[in-house]
Design goal:
The chain is mainly α and 186 residues long. The protein contains six helices and two strands; from the N terminus they run αααββααα.
Length: 186
């Protein structure tokens, strides 16, 4: 998206009075450059059922008990599942440490994903409402969202915070890989 931003700005300036024509040109640009503006939301929709499944599985304090009388004689009785993370903590219980790691990795994930705003001299150019709103949302996503995630994660089983942390670490790694491969600087 950063690569086509100058083209998007030119289209918006050229067709600022005709919103329909502007939308058609923007969609044509996306198609030409093979950019999917909705690709990031798909990952969110995939993660929501996983988070709910983890929550409901570990809500009762572990995995369900298996009635061994109902198993066939040739099926080996499953061993109990180890529900400790690295032998340090029970992931079915609440954990402030894992909530902290989820919030910390969320902060860095947002820091790497959202572009930073350059300070402008207000006497030379006044910021538009759109620029101010984008800057405000960026600040909120960077600082407020991790706090919210901490408070949500501390009340849930640690497995949810572990999943959130792992997901954030993969997102950070992906962002760094894409920056390095496309030579994007921030």
């Amino acid at each position: 998206m950063k690569e086509i931003q100058p083209d998007l700005d030119a289209i918006k300036e050229k067709h600022k009075n005709n919103k329909q024509e502007q939308a058609l040109k923007v969609m044509a640009l996306y198609k030409e450059k093979k950019v999917n503006p909705f690709s990031g939301i798909l990952l969110l929709f995939i993660q929501i059922p996983i988070i709910f499944a983890l929550y409901f599985v570990f809500l009762k304090g572990g995995l369900p008990k298996i009635d061994t009388n109902m198993l066939y004689s040739f099926i080996k009785i499953p061993e109990p599942v180890n529900i400790s993370f690295l032998g340090l903590m029970d992931i079915t219980q609440k954990s402030y440490i894992m909530a902290f790691f989820a919030a910390l990795t969320q902060f860095f994930q947002v820091k790497f994903a959202i572009p930073s705003f350059k300070k402008t001299d207000n006497s030379l150019k006044s910021n538009s409402f759109k620029d101010d709103l984008a800057k405000s949302m960026s600040i909120q996503m960077k600082y407020i969202l991790p706090v919210i995630i901490f408070f949500i994660s501390r009340g849930l089983p640690a497995v949810i915070a572990l999943y959130w942390t792992t997901s954030n670490l993969f997102a950070i790694g992906q962002e760094l890989y894409l920056r390095r491969s496309r030579k994007i600087t921030k």
